[in-house]
Amino acid sequence: MTNEVVLDIETQNTFEDVGGYDHSKLKISVIGVYFFENDEYRAYEEPEFPELWNRLERSGRIIGYNIKGFDFLVMNNYYAGDFLQFPYLDIMDEIAHVLGFRLKLDHVASATVGHGKTGHGLQAVEWWKNGEIDKIKQYCLDDVRITKAVYEYGLKYKALAYEDRAGDRKGIPVNFEPKEVAKPAINLTMPF
User: Fold this and answer.
1) Which CATH number does the domain housing residue 70 bear?
2) Which of 10 and 24 is assigned the larger pLDDT?
């Protein structure tokens, strides 16, 4: 776990803004990351992305919530390689595999670690339009903290939780142990 990272992105725009469900038209405002190797939280803006790409390429595994279906697809707009080729753990994907349906991070976090998110992504888009970058960074890093807490709980107890429609707390068995995956032998940020 020493060189794993937890990641979340916020966007400048929404699918409604770009006229449909097209990840290639979304732009990133901030990428929030937690680095286990040095216990560091950091928010990256667009000019800093190349520095982040180098760190992610050296990471052991990228952990997030819906990173396979959202974050990586948008991040690939800025990256010469493909983040889906990196070792990763998508917590939402693992939950959907077990339950057969998807849950929001807020619902899982509230039932699992006792507190949910501090807002929602649409607020971050409004903050972007208002030039309130510090608010976006704080919100994004709060999401990273929540995701990290859910990940660590699942890693330790091999279970997460959610409340069903009747308000009953239900368990979700998970296995967050890293799987052996061969890492690429090349630097993926080198243009070819």
Assistant:
1) 3.30.420.10
2) 10
